[in-house]
Amino acid sequence: MNRVPATAAPAALALGDDALVLSHRLGEWAGHAPVLEEEVALANIALDLLGQARVLLSLVGDEDELAYLREERAFRNLQLVEQPNGDFAQTIARQLYFSTYQELLYGQLAAGDGEFAPLAAKAVKEVAYHRDHAEHWTLRLGDGTPESHERMQRGCDALWRFTGEMFQPVEGVDADWQKLENAWRESVGAVLQRATLIVPEGPRGGAWTAGAGRQGLHTEPFGRMIAEMQHLHRSHPGATW
Amino acid sequence: MATAAAHRTTAEAQAAEAERTAAHEAAFDAAVAADERIEPRDWMPDAYRASLVRQMAQHAHSEIIGMQPEANWITRAPSLRRKAILMAKVQDEAGHGLYLYSAAETLGTGREELLDKLHSGRQKYSSIFNYPTLTWADVGAIGWLVDGAAITNQVPLCRCSYGPYARAMVRICKEESFHQRQGYELLLHLSNGTPEQHAMAQDAVDRWWWPSLMMFGPPDDESAHSAQSMTWKIKRHSNDELRQRFVDIAVPQAEALGLTLPDPDLRWNEVRGHYDFGAIDWDEFWDVLKGNGPCNEQRISQRRTAHEEGAWVREAASAYAAKHGKAAA
Question: What is the top-level taxon of the source organism (chain A) (predicted)?
Answer without folding.
Answer: Bacteria
